[in-house]
């Protein structure tokens, strides 16, 4: 049976709908979809700096934790002897941040000390809290606890205060060298001090640095000291820093170094005593024959140079010793 409406039936249906005699199905709205649309409209878009994110994701260097743990213990003993009072030092977790973000956290003026590391071929920066410096000053000169009563941050340091800071840096350098010995031998030397981070131009604001913070307490006064090392300098010796050295590793390394030194001492060296030199043209050289005399560039009593691996290392006098021709050493050439 064909389900086709006639024209009269169609007209009657439209009339019933328009007059309300026939109920129609109402449109159902999905509230969940509507809420999702509303939430999507409220979402704010923020820029994501992929370069900054990549720079911050640096490989951790476990040996640095070992080094700073040794340093905190030895520095505590050295500082206690310096101020002749008991000192407590707590090591905070290390951080890897951009240098620009780090210097924004420092007060101005601040105390930043550049320490050159010759064998590491780089440098690190030591920053002292003003409260720590004044606490050390009060302890040394025996004054009352004025650090609590007055604001010490934000003002420049005097010459006497800088002298105390220099002594603290000397202690840091000595203890840092000791702490690094089991991992990589370094040599620390104080370079200069700055009160404004912008004056230290060896590091760009975008460069990632390793930050070690030590909380130092002298009597009832707390301060901090921070050590900042550029990550690029640490990367040059990353092979030494990716694993924590053990006591067995140190003993094996020491035995290996002793054997290596012994083997090096047994290496044969070729030594040549240069009696004199003469430059001549090839044409003149070809004319040489027996009984000809070659005049060299030295007199009979001039010192003779001894070459090792084609480099002059020793000067001495030519003579005879126990019937053999010999040279008496008079100078070692550095």
Q: Give the mean pLDDT.
A: 82
Radius of gyration: 40 Å
Rough shape? elongated
Number of domains: 2
| Residue windows where pLDDT falls under 50 for at least 5 positions | none
Total count of helical runs of at least 4 residues: 11
Report, as a whole number of angstroms, the end-to-end distance. 119 Å
Q: Helical percent range?
A: 25-40%
CATH C-level label of the largest domain: Alpha Beta
Query: What structural category characterises the helix and strand content?
Result: alpha+beta
Strand content: 15-25%
The CATH topology name of the largest domain reads Chemotaxis protein chec
Query: What do we call the CATH homologous superfamily of the largest domain?
Result: CheC-like
Instruction: Give the topology string: H per helix, E per strand.
Output: HHHHEEHEEHHEEEHHHEHEEE
Largest sheet: 7 strands, antiparallel
Overall number of strands: 11
Per CATH, the architecture of the largest domain is 3-Layer(aba) Sandwich
Descriptors:
334 residues, alpha+beta, Chemotaxis protein chec, Surface presentation of antigens (SPOA), 2 domains, 7-stranded antiparallel β-sheet, 4-stranded antiparallel β-sheet, 11 helices, 11 strands
């Amino acid at each position: 049976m064909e389900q086709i409406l006639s024209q009269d039936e169609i007209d009657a249906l439209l009339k019933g709908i328009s007059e309300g005699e026939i109920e129609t199905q109402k449109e159902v709205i999905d509230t969940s979809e509507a809420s999702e649309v509303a939430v999507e409209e409220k979402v704010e878009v923020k820029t994501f700096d992929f370069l900054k994110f990549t720079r911050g994701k640096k490989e951790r260097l476990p040996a640095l934790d070992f080094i700073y743990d040794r340093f905190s213990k030895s520095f505590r003993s050295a500082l206690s002897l310096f101020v002749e009072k008991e000192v407590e030092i707590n090591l905070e977790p290390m951080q890897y941040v951009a240098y620009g973000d780090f210097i924004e956290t420092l007060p101005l003026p601040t105390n930043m000390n550049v320490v050159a590391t010759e064998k590491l071929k780089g440098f690190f920066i030591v920053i002292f809290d003003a409260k720590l410096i004044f606490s050390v000053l009060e302890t040394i000169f025996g004054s009352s606890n004025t650090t609590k009563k007055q604001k010490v941050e934000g003002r420049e340091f005097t010459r006497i205060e800088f002298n105390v800071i220099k002594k603290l840096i000397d202690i840091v350098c000595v203890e840092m060298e000791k702490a690094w010995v089991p991992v990589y031998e370094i040599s620390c030397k104080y370079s200069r001090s700055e009160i404004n981070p912008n004056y230290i131009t060896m590091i760009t604001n975008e460069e990632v640095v390793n930050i070690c913070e030590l909380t130092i307490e002298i009597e009832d006064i707390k301060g901090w000291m921070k050590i900042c090392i550029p990550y690029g300098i640490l990367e040059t010796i990353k092979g030494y820093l990716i694993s924590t050295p053990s006591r067995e590793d140190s003993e094996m390394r020491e035995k290996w170094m002793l054997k290596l030194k012994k083997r090096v001492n047994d290496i044969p060296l070729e030594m040549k005593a240069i009696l004199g030199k003469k430059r001549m043209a090839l044409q003149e050289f070809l004319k040489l024959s027996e009984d000809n005399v070659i005049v060299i560039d030295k007199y009979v009593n001039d010192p003779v140079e001894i070459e090792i691996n084609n480099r002059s290392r020793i000067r001495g006098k030519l003579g005879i010793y126990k019937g053999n021709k010999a040279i008496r050493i008079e100078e070692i050439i550095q």
